Automatic annotation (TrEMBL):
This protein's UniProt keywords: ATP-binding, Hydrolase, Iron, Iron-sulfur, Metal-binding, Nucleotide-binding
Signal peptide: none
General function of this protein: Binds and transfers iron-sulfur (Fe-S) clusters to target apoproteins. Can hydrolyze ATP.
Quaternary data: Homodimer.
GO molecular function: 4 iron, 4 sulfur cluster binding; ATP binding; ATP hydrolysis activity; ATP-dependent FeS chaperone activity; metal ion binding
Residues given in the record as ATP binding sites: G144, K145, G146, G147, V148, G149, K150, S151
Source organism (scientific name): Formicincola oecophyllae
Name of the featured protein: Iron-sulfur cluster carrier protein
Source species, domain of life: Bacteria
Amino acid sequence: MTPDTPHQHGPGCSHTTPPSPPQASQADPRRALASQTLANLLKQDGHTLEAPLSALSERAGVIHAVFMANAQTAPVLSALKPRLEQALEKALGQPVRASFMAQRGAAREALAPGAPKPAHHGQAEPGPAAVPGGIHAALAVASGKGGVGKSTVAVNLACGLAKLGLRVGLLDADIHGPSIARMMGAGKAGKPEVKGGKLIPLTGPEGVRYVSIALLADERQAMIWRGPMVMGALTQLIKDVVWGELDLLVVDMPPGTGDAQITLTKTLAPQLAKGGAVVVSTPQAVALMDARRGLTLFERTKTPVLGLVENMSFFACPHCQGETALFGHGGVAREAEALNVPFLGEVPLLPAIREGGDEGVPSVSEPGSAAGKAFMALAKNVAASLASRQSQSLGGEQPGAHQQSAP
Ligand SMILES: Nc1ncnc2c1ncn2[C@@H]1O[C@H](COP(=O)(O)OP(=O)(O)OP(=O)(O)O)[C@@H](O)[C@H]1O
């Protein structure tokens, strides 16, 4: 029973109707006002989207307005929430909390005309048609588990490759724990603009253009979107962004090997065929086991693997300059050899790397530092590997073919 549906007594039913919280009835003029307020805001921002009001109720003097969201509207509504609540308060003359509820079959409705049909369990498979033509190649930065420094490597690779002369975009697809905005210093730059229903990426260090779901939602809010909404948000962050001409879109993948990762690799398949994936791991056995799973995902989706990266390789003490192999230095290089995958380089555990991440200053922007040198060496190896991939692609290799040659 939804809040708007009164309890119906069947023949012989003696149940008493449970007391319900104070709610607005269908005839309540506030419903129309709430719907109109959202419609006006969407129109103001140049959207042609609709998000019907599902319920309006009142508790302890606060009005709760629930709107239906689908894969397409969810990110827009999240970004709009503070303004929507303000506008609703003004229109209804009372404090208002707005929330959004997933619509059944939402992803299917969100498919663009001509996009591939939805795959199993009703989730959108956006397909290559969704990717803007200006994105020439993509680099997926992945890890089997969280916390190994994948986002740190993604940021420094993006900025390092930009320093080497590439036009680089950076997409924070780590929808459940987005940290790219902070690492790129978004606090200083504010929120991205929306023009004609498209998002204008922010420009960060070294001219890297970037977007993150964290820029659309409140950074403190837990990312609890599920299934189709995640797919929809990710697809929008690729296709509804004015990326312009990019030699490379670096994608900070969500950790693990679930549906979101598969959707991303399939959506960006042609671009990944000209770029590839790097898998980040710390050297200890547990992380390596997960990294292996990450590699299997790329094999399954026929994404070329450029190689493995060892992060937090050893602790380089800034006081005594001594090195301590906290997680067992060299584990990733050995794993790469065993799996016949290139080893791209190692990055030590350095307090400056964590500080740079928190302050929004990537290590490569301080080229003289130990961290800057380690990440630039990595970026150069990746650039060499990309160049060799692209010359192979130009040489007639089928896009999506699995490749694992040394850089
Ligand atoms: N080499 C390093 N030395 C010191 N600190 C590091 C290093 N690499 C990453 N960190 C720090 O470790 C923390 C986790 O890193 P990061 O967010 O990049 O990991 P992640 O694998 O992307 O995690 P998640 O997937 O959970 O978001 C951050 O505070 C980051 O600054």
